[in-house]
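Reading group handout, session on sequence-to-structure problems. Before we discuss, look at one worked example. The prompt was deliberately terse, the way you'd type it at a terminal:

> structure Crooked neck-like protein 1

The input record follows.
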Amino acid sequence: RGGARARSGGKMASTAAGKQRIPKVAKVKNKAPAEVQITAEQLLREAKERELELLPPPPQQKITDVEELNDYKLRKRKTFEDNIRKNRTVISNWIKYAQWEESLKEIQRARSIYERALDVDYRNVTLWLKYAEMEMKNRQVNHARNIWDRAITTLPRVNQFWYKYTYMEEMLGNVAGSRQVFERWMEWQPEEQAWHSYINFELRYKEVDRARSIYERYILFSVTLLVLVHPDVKNWIKYARFEEKHSYFAHARKVYERAVEFFGEEHMDEHLYVAFAKFEENQKEFERVRVIYKYALDRIPKQEAQNLFKNYTIFEKKFGDRRGIEDIIVSKRRFQYEEEVKANPHNYDAWFDYLRLVESDAEAETVREVYERAIANVPPIPEKRHWKRYIYLWINYALYEELEAKASKRTRQVYQACLELLPHKKFTFAKMWLLYAQFEIRQKNLPLARRALGTSIGKCPKNKLFKGYIELELQLREFDRCRKLYEKFLEFAPENCTSWIKFAELETILGDIDRARAIYELAIGQPRLDMPEVLWKSYIDFEIEQEEYEKTRNLYRRLLQRTQHVKVWISFAQFELAAGREQRLPRCRQIYEEANRAMRSCEEKEERVMLLESWRSFEDEFGTDATKERIEKLMPEKIKKRRKLQAEDGSDAGWEEYYDYIFPEDTANQPNLKLLAMAKLWKKQQQESEAAAMDPDKDIDESQT
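And the output record:
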């Protein structure tokens, strides 16, 4: 039997092969990888790009008779049915099919398709909406009602069905039917917006009593259910505002009272009390408003009652007296500041804030008391950095007494107490002395102001004190006192160049040129100066202004004996160019030549280059061809060099490149220059020989020539 079966199987296979030949699988001879590899990413990218290619639109088909139309419908329906058969759960195919039938006015067929789709997925919200919209579009009201009834029965938690259903009934003028739908909806205890939609619906038809009953039911749900549905305060507030809007003020007040009773003291909310107080304020019940605010503020934590406190403040400002307003605003913040200063008495920033608060609202005695408490906290360490914030307490105290309290005697006492407190042997504050002197001047008490500044200079001389005292005497045009003060100042700080210059300028303004020149001579003769270049420049400018050119030249020569700085030489040359009328060019050129000779031994080659560049710019403007050629020969050559670097620990840190200048006048560098020139010549010959080797024909032509 097995052999017979095998033979029969072989015959059947041969007959099948005779009918349809099976292609042979091609054998790959070269299994090496291709030169150009195609990745999966490239394949996906090409597929995505080809999706964007615009396909040509299908040809338009013109239907001329009924048979052709029926044939088109049949083909189209077959396509839709095939798509549905492939995947029944894709609701978009059902909707497209039904909409196509609807476009052909085949309403019955479209209904059938929607019903079949609902059998597949009755939870699809879009399907119900499209079905009902089709019926409404085609004015099939009863069919639409049936669909909405089925939808809200099947899916009662989909609010969109209820909104659409009630809107349709209202648009049809069926107010009773719409109300009936709302009632069915409310039985499901929907969200807050549904209740407000029902209330607004009743208000549109002036049914205030019905709206009130809906609010009552809405609030009743919040109170009676074990699991609170809408326990939010805003629902109660909306109900009360509804009553207030329709002029039922007693009902509104009762709603607020019920809300306060409902939430109790455990779940108090500031928004409820703010709304309640504003309602009573609108009714001109100011005492009731005050009671409500105080009741809430006594029971709600401070950090949770910011808005409540703000509104209470605004109310008191509008309808209360000054004392009530002060108590409200100051009490809370004063308590906070008191806690801060008790925790850290040396927290001067907290004292500043506290004093600013007290100054804005309290009486003068209260402000003075707080200031006295603040200045009593003297810094424990006698270091100036610890006193910088503390001293401003005294300054603010004195300014308050002078400007706000108008008490000049107390102001003077404050300044004197502060100056007695300062440890002048260790440090002082020039600002306090100057403020005190300016205060006495405002009080037209010049002797006390001078006495205060004189005492400050005697106890603790400082540059700022001298400058302030001198400025005061200058404003008073007491020039003899200014001279004495400058003398004291220069005895105290002889290295201060600014003081010397100001003193000389004062004498210049007064027309005493000899005294000014003598002051400058004393100044430049000092062994130690903080800014000598500024002093010399001022002295030179002074002589130039007096047109004493010989003295100016002597000053430049004296300065060059002390320093050979390149800027001094350049300034000297420019002076000769600008000052001398005759022989100015030779003088200027001579200065440049002297500077060049003097700076040959200078290690800073950049300064010498700066001098030569200034000289060259001078020759470019005023020189001849010979002088220009000469200065060009003096210009250095810029070369690049390398030098070895060492780290801080002495190890090698590599090499760095830098630029150096080689001056033709330096005889010490002549061997190096000759070596460099020979190296350049050798390099040029090497390049010519390499070029000749690369081009032999050129050599033959040159030999023939």
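Points for discussion. First: Residues 670-694 form the longest helix (25 residues). Second: The first strand starts at residue 637 and ends at 646.
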